[in-house]
Every structure is written in structure tokens, then in C-alpha cells.
């Protein structure tokens, strides 16, 4: 059994030291085609962004730029309002939970006080 462990650890060490097997030609072709597709998609996205972004166009009127900035500010304001609403909702929920915890703690303290008052003190032996 000791020889089996020694041989398996030797095989494991060889596996760690040997370089990874090269990709098969078919796998290399697939990887290359994915790279080309990824690059073309990236180029299309950049072109679309350039078309959507008026700051990339040199012949833009001040009115168009103003409208674009106003649109961006409205979007930011809407997102800010949404996040603010979520934050205030979470704060209200936490406040309610804290109040419930305080109430429960108060009841437990009151119950403990009532229990200590209700139990008579232990009798002491007099000699």
C-alpha cells in the first residue's frame, strides 16, 4: 500500500510539472472565431455608442447638447429618487424592528422583576 501511495504521488508530481496539452486544431479555430466575433461585437457597440453620444460629433448645436445634458440630469435624478426611496424604506423597516426589540426587552425585564418579587426569600435557620 505504501508503494501505491508513492507511485500515485509521483504521478501527481509529474502531472503538476508537465505543461498543459496544446489545443487541438479544431479548438484553436473555435477560439479564434470567438475572438473575431467578440471583436466585431465590441466594434459595433463602440459605433452605436458613438452615434448615441452627441459629444463625439463635432457638428452639434448648443441646443442639442443642452437637451442631451438635461436628459442625462433627468435620468440621474430619477435614479437618485429611486435609491432614496429604497433607503428610506429600509430605514423605516429597521426602526420598526428596533422598536419591537425594545418592547420585547422591556417585557422580559418586567417579567423578571415580577418573578423576583413573587418568590419569597429563602428561610434562614435560627439557632
From TrEMBL:
GO cellular component annotations of the record: cytosol; nucleus
Biased composition range(s): Low complexity: 41-51
Record-level GO BP terms: cellular heat acclimation
Region (Disordered): 1-63, 102-127
Pfam families noted in UniProt: HSBP1 (PF06825)
InterPro entries attached to this UniProt entry: HS1-bd (IPR009643)
Biased composition, class Polar residues, residue ranges: 1-10, 31-40, 52-63
GO molecular function ontology, one term from the record: transcription corepressor activity
Superkingdom of this protein's organism: Eukaryota
Membership in a protein family: Belongs to the HSBP1 family.
Name of the molecule in the record: Heat shock factor binding protein 1
Annotated organism of origin: Entomortierella chlamydospora
